[in-house]
Amino acid sequence: MGSLGQPMEGLPVAQLDVIDYSRLSKNDTQEVQRLLKACTQEGFFYLDLSGGDSRVLSQVDRVYAFMEEWLGQSHEEKMKNYQTNYTDGYKPTGYFAGVDDKSRDNSETLKVSHKAFTTTPPSLPQGVQKHGDMLHSYLDTASGIAIQLLSALSDGLGLKDSERFEAFHADREDSNSTLVLLKYPYIDPATRNKQVGHNKHTDIGSITMLFTDQWGLQVMRPGSDKWEYIEPSPSCAIINVGDCLRFLSQKKLLSCLHRVVPAEGSTADRNTIAYFLRPSNKATFVDSNGELSTAADWHDRKYEVFRSTHDDQRKDTILTGGLEAEGKLSA
């Protein structure tokens, strides 16, 4: 598996399973079982998209080019699209808690949701309209891949009809599924300031599909107390299970703790394309506090926790999806 960035030797690197999407899309029984194992034991895996219909990889290149152009604008221009909700618009660095205690995050993001395309004309951020077709196409492709994963997991668990995970994701327009383009500006380690990376967390939704061009993503695998880097790959998406899918599966499937920390030896900005598939807003489950919650409520509550101080984050189970409270983590 080829790497896009070359950090210093000696970094701890997670050895994740590689699932072949072309085999999975043909309902290959062995590959379905490999997927189920990855999602019940790890919560993170690589999805090899190089075989079969790999149009998503060429789409990724176009999205990278777009985000370089859009996020390369002046701060004043980008702030004209300051987010008014958690699914669309621009967020500057420092909005969420960072890696270090008392620090803030170091990622600026542009979000474009499925919902943005349901209005006439689409309610897209300024400067995005001319790229609307390309972004809409990517959203549809990413959604299709994520739904295929849900279908395979439903098959692997023997789920039927309304129990199948796809049933909770049927009304895409009535969900908070979104594309998030993240740029982590390079920081010289010698001058590391109070805006660093992205704090530890589990993801809000069901399936996260991520592409990145630099090292920085770290995972703490189940049963471990050590952070390991996830190697970026040009032919694979990095996939992880989110809170909602864990809750909908009655915790048969695992979400996994992760964060973003600048890797030693990195010398460039880190760009990430993340698609977050989330359930229908009306889907219900028992959350990490033992309360009945809708997907929409969990989404909004978790984002408020992301914004909170580290001290406030430690007062609740929401940031890590209950994993720390259940004793499944030691950090």
The radius of gyration over CA amounts to 19 Å
Spans of at least 5 consecutive residues whose pLDDT stays below 50 are none
| Helical segment count | 8
CATH topology: Jelly Rolls
Averaged pLDDT, please?
Answer: 90
Q: What summary fits the major beta sheet? A: 8 strands, mixed
> How would you classify the helix and strand content by structural class?
alpha+beta
Which overall shape is indicated by the principal axes computed on the Cα atoms? globular
- How large is the share of residues in beta strands? 15-25%
Instruction: State the order of secondary-structure elements, H for helix, E for strand.
Output: EHHEHHEEHEEEEEEHEEEEHH
The CATH homologous superfamily: B-lactam Antibiotic, Isopenicillin N Synthase, Chain
Concise overview:
The chain is of the alpha+beta class and 331 residues long. The protein has 8 helices and 14 strands. The longest helix has 25 residues, at 132-156.
